[in-house]
Amino acid sequence: xxxFAALVFFxxxxxxxxxxxxxxxxxDEIQSLRGRFTxxxxxxxxxxxxSSSGDFVVKRPGxxxxxxxxPYEQTVIGTPEKVWIYDPDLEQVTIxxxxxxxxxxxxxxxSGDLSELRSTYEVSGNAKEGFRLQPRxxxxxxxxxxxxxxxxxxxxxxxxxxxxxxxxxxxxxxQLNTPVAAETFVFTAPEGTDxxxxx
Length: 199
Hints:
This protein is α+β, with helices and mostly antiparallel strands.
């Protein structure tokens, strides 16, 4: 009876551990990823707040480019050390250290070191139904992050922030593990751009 009780008690923990390992195994297969994305931001009632599309590039470990097109034009470049957020409409670029709390983003998770995945998130689900990551720390900017797969390929991301705003991202025209030039992740601010360093 004691053994059965212990087995029942630990079963959910083992399931979460397996889900974390399964997700890590799948993400470890991604050395680079590039393609198109569509992104929809909704409020907690489900109303569409903003829709955008553009190009993305991910190179592990620690590099990503997220380039949204007009009318919500923005370029975000991340390296293991820095993140540049460029808003051409504002003629402004914000530079942050990569360990900045605000950079605890799904793009960083996708491109970064996965060794602490289990200690940082409670992971549930599987490749067929999707993986859900719930942060273990209450100061995370996200309530959850979800990874969606189809035919063992990453096709979607979804996350909810502390304002209950929901972001859904679909990936298209994806190229897996193709060469990515180093200059892809180099940002040079256009002349006249205001530079804000947020440390």
